[in-house]
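Friendly challenge for the regulars: who can give me the structure tokens for this chain first? No prize, just bragging rights.
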Amino acid sequence: TKRPIRPKDASKKMSDKREADKVWKLTPSTPKSASIKEVKMKTNINFRQVSEIKICYKPKVKAENRYRITCSQDAYNLLIKEAFDPNTIEYKEYVKLIALNRDSQVMGITTISEGGINSSVVDIRLILQIALLTHSSAIILAHNHPTGQLLPSIQDDMLTKQVKDAAKIMDITLHDHLIVSSDNYYSYTDDGKL
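First reply, four minutes later:
Bragging rights claimed.
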């Protein structure tokens, strides 16, 4: 005779089955006929010790209402209005990123780095992460020079090349890199350097 399943045993069996299902998804070569114990032994994975990653992006603006960037002036206007604080643009350096879809519509703007008086540390992986999470086809990089000097430095040129090359691997276009001040801007694209 079969002994009745007690509630505690039932919940343990369900938990084991969920773990086994996860293993079967991760290791398709594991036969479905394998017992839960065999599956656990084969993979040596304890799913209670592994974090699951969930990614979410919810645009706040409907597609038909998104701001479209057609030139560097459009990008500058958006950055000055939405991204750079007029009270701190001449205080310290900020690096911003505009994420664009295939229609050059803005998916979002974010701060990549907040630096000191004359420099910011930029992690290119963060730029690509944002572009990938927002399903962006293109990006625009922007930063300010607190001095108001708009000409790019050697470090600016190197960063532009690194971002362009890294983004290209992921089939993402670097549309422009702007250096902004409160009343003017420099565009790598307009200057033919991109």
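The mean pLDDT is 84. The two ends are 77 Å apart (CA to CA). Your move, everyone else.
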